[in-house]
TrEMBL record:
GO terms for cellular component: endoplasmic reticulum membrane; Golgi membrane; plasma membrane. It is an enzyme of class 2 (transferase). The keyword Cell membrane applies. Its main location: membrane. It comes from Lynx pardinus. It catalyses: L-cysteinyl-[protein] + hexadecanoyl-CoA = S-hexadecanoyl-L-cysteinyl-[protein] + CoA. PANTHER family: PALMITOYLTRANSFERASE ZDHHC4, ZINC FINGER DHHC DOMAIN CONTAINING PROTEIN. This is Palmitoyltransferase.
């Protein structure tokens, strides 16, 4: 069983690494580590190759392109092809319920619908025509979002909770983040699509992980297949269940994906429940007003602590995500 032990150890290391990066992302340690690593690499890699790498990274992460959309669809297609070709057929022979086997396909259809909506829908672009009405939606906290701020690129006054996206080159109302996987900003008007997309993607990965695990347990453990061995062409002793390596690696991939997506889904649900955006959460550790570069104040002025003034209870917060127009009308009436 050395193969499985090493494989599980590999998955554990990947998950621990991702969790560590998430924990350190709001500190200066990660930035210092990246800066130091970049300096070491710059001494090794030739200058021409460095320029090429910078151009590729700039294209991938700082310009709108469909690279990650195609990668997303390719990975999703490969996983579902393996599930259909291997797991689905074997599970039918073993008498699995057809309802459980078809559940990943139902989730796939829903996921692709909301994936498309996340890609093509307007996230809440602020224009000169709608800027005045959007200025009335959220209260300015005078710390993270001061009044009378103007975007010098779009030439509009910036409503509270908005931000100019350098990738899309537009100001977005209730800006959350720019997602390369959907090649679009996530804002007030498409946050609900993105949340359902993320939910169904996590559910589909978890469902395939459960079905594949039950299948392997029934095939390997119940039938004692894990004890069976054979001698390969080179005379090496191998375990018989490793003749299904694609299923084993697909299971490892969807299990890892389930944990990563599940963690990000929990984080996104936390932000929705507390009426925060990713941009606000990331900037929230800048507790003092002098950290805000656009806020001018005398040196003797007292620093102001940032507080989330937009949370009004769980159901009201969720209403802003799923019914943004109705929530904005209710705020205007109040």
């Amino acid at each position: 069983m050395d193969f499985l032990v090493l494989f599980l150890f590999y998955l554990a290391l990947v998950l621990i690494g991702v969790v560590t990066i998430c924990i350190c992302s709001k500190t200066h340690y990660l930035r210092g580590l990246i800066r130091g690593g970049a300096q070491v690499i710059s001494c090794i890699i030739p200058e021409c190759l460095q320029r090429a790498i910078r151009k590729v990274l700039h294209y991938l992460f700082h310009t709108r392109n469909h690279t990650f959309i195609m990668l997303h669809l390719l990975l999703q297609g490969m996983v579902y092809a393996e599930y259909t070709w291997e797991v689905f057929g074997y599970c039918q022979e073993l008498g699995f319920s057809l309802h459980y086997l078809l559940l990943p396909y139902l989730l796939l259809v829903i996921n692709l619908v909301f994936f498309t909506l996340s890609c093509v829908s307007n996230p809440g672009t602020i224009t000169k025509a709608n800027a005045f009405s959007l200025l009335q939606v959220y209260e300015f906290d005078e710390v993270m979002f001061p009044k009378n701020m103007k975007c010098f690129t779009c030439h509009v006054r910036k409503p509270a909770r908005s931000k100019h996206c350098r990738v899309c080159n537009r100001c977005v109302h209730r800006f959350d983040h720019h997602c390369v996987w959907v090649n679009n900003c996530i804002g007030a008007w498409n946050a609900r699509y993105f949340l359902i997309y993320l939910l169904t993607l996590t559910a589909s990965a978890a469902t395939m992980a459960v079905v594949s695990t039950v299948f392997l347990v029934q095939l390997v453990v119940v039938s004692d297949l894990y004890l069976e061995t054979y001698v390969d062409d080179l005379g090496h002793l191998q375990y018989l269940f490793l003749t299904l390596p694609r299923i084993v690696f697909m299971l490892g991939f969807v299990v890892m994906l389930s944990f990563l997506l599940g963690g990000y889904l929990c984080f996104t649900l936390y932000l929705a429940a507390t009426n925060q955006t990713t941009n606000e959460w990331y900037r929230g550790d800048r507790a003092w007003c002098h950290h805000c570069p656009h806020v001018a104040r005398p040196p003797s002025a007292e620093p102001q602590v940032y507080r989330n003034i937009h949370s009004h209870g769980l159901w009201s917060n969720l209403g802003e995500i799923f019914l943004p127009a109705a929530a904005h009308c209710a705020k205007k009436m109040n």
